Amino acid sequence: MDPALLDAADLLRPFRDRFVLPQGTIYLDGNSLGCLPKATAPKITELVNVDWGQNLIGSWNVAGWVDAPQRVGDKIARLVGAEEGEVVACDSTSVNVFKALCAALSANPGRSTILSERGNFPTDVYMMQGLEALTGRRVSARLVDGETVLDAIDDDTAVVLLTQVHYRTGRVRDMVATTAAAQARGALVIWDLSHSAGAIPADLSGANADFAVGCGYKFLNGGPGAPGYIFAARRHQDTAMPALSGWFGHARPFDFDDAYRPAPGIARFLVGTPPIIGLAALEVGVDLMREADMAQVRSKSVAMGELFARRMAPLCERHGFMLASPADPAERGSQISYAHPEAYPIVQALIARGVVGDFRAPDVLRFGLTPLYTSFGEIAAAVDTIAAVMDEGAWDRPEFKVRAAVT
């Protein structure tokens, strides 16, 4: 179908006007950093000028700062199929991975191996390896090929850490089947939802998930370095120990006890003082996302991916691109990736022409499909720009081959 006709039928199109979108830019990197909601700046300005500037420390009570992690967590819970009181917004994804690993190990005593797939997002793997080193290798971190993860679970596997939507390829794992199979072998499962929440339907309760983590700055549009979140199924909350026993995770933090007593429920997964400005920005993005119909979001995402793939097909033949995502759109998250030996300079040449995707080593061009603010016309124009960059050889310039710190 013609992109203009698809845009005319787009039920999500009104959301586009609620984001700051730089003129002349086609932004296909919302799976790395979401765009700025127009409501965020006024919210932060009010918080800084009134709540902080005028009410000062009183805003912990009168402005509800102290409850922000649980309040925002409950809102995120509705986006990932969790119940109220099972998600708390706090810390970074990396810190939350560490807490979830420790909690899962404590909830599955007698087992000491943590298992994941090779090529999982680095922070997940690094946290596993760090925990192995911290425990003097009493805990073992093990990586296997993605297709063999379930077969690799043995009698010592305490927890399996997996990403629902793979960051490089966009491949979607079956959360229900994978969780059931791992639990049947006696392992608990941690799901990384960083590329899921706000992008595809996720149902932690329906999958009987044990733990999950995610970030707030991709499809939730919480801003650079936005707080992450952690989910713990209610059945684990009062027995699992997340290891980082911080002040805000205490049962009564303002009793100032010398001895740590974990808070009941999800609050024990808090650590230090909540980052209020970051949580306020995240809450705006989450509130906006909650207004959207996830079925419509997913339907548009799939349609955009199909349009992108269809228009890229001639370029695959002509210029050597290879689809790095699953061919079946139902098996892709809200992104599409292609492999090419010159992926990095091609991405830089595209950015110079106003089409912003990103590069993932060693050879992947990654394009995020963000249904709330990306149009079908932009998808078509982006692929036309890729064709022009390749046909003209515009990528083959020295300045496009110099690696920046962030790719």
Question: What does the overall shape look like?
Answer: globular
As a percent range, the share of helical residues equals 25-40%
Structural class: alpha/beta
CATH architecture descriptor of the largest domain? 3-Layer(aba) Sandwich
CATH superfamily of the largest domain: Type I PLP-dependent aspartate aminotransferase-like (Major domain)
Total number of beta strands: 15
Distance between the termini: 33 Å
Percentage beta strand: 5-15%
Integer count of domains: 2
Largest sheet: 7 strands, mixed
Order of helices and strands: HEEEHHHEHEHEHEHEEEHHHEEHEEEH
Output the radius of gyration: 22 Å
The name of the CATH topology of the largest domain is Aspartate Aminotransferase, domain 2
- Note the total helix count: 13
Report the uncertain regions: none
Q: Give the overall pLDDT as a whole number.
A: 96
Q: What is the strand arrangement across the widest sheet?
A: 4-10-9-8-7-5-6
CATH class of the largest domain: Alpha Beta
In short:
InterPro entries: Kynureninase, PyrdxlP-dep_Trfase, PyrdxlP-dep_Trfase_major, PyrdxlP-dep_Trfase_small. With 407 residues, this protein is of the alpha/beta class. The protein has helices spanning 3-8, 40-52, 59-62, 68-79, 93-107, 122-134, 149-152, 175-184, 234-237, 276-291, 294-319, 343-352, 376-392; strands at residues 19-20, 26-27, 36-37, 87-89, 113-117, 140-144, 157-163, 188-192, 211-214, 229-232, 322-323, 335-339, 355-356, 358-360, 364-368.
SSE inventory with pairings:
Blueprint: H1 3-8, E1 19-20, E2 26-27, E3 36-37, H2 40-52, H3 59-62, H4 68-79, E4 87-89, H5 93-107, E5 113-117, H6 122-134, E6 140-144, H7 149-152, E7 157-163, H8 175-184, E8 188-192, E9 211-214, E10 229-232, H9 234-237, H10 276-291, H11 294-319, E11 322-323, E12 335-339, H12 343-352, E13 355-356, E14 358-360, E15 364-368, H13 376-392
Parallel strand pairs: 2-13, 5-6, 5-7, 7-8, 8-9
Antiparallel strand pairs: 1-3, 4-10, 9-10, 11-12, 12-15, 14-15
Helix pairs in contact: 2-10, 4-10, 5-6, 11-13
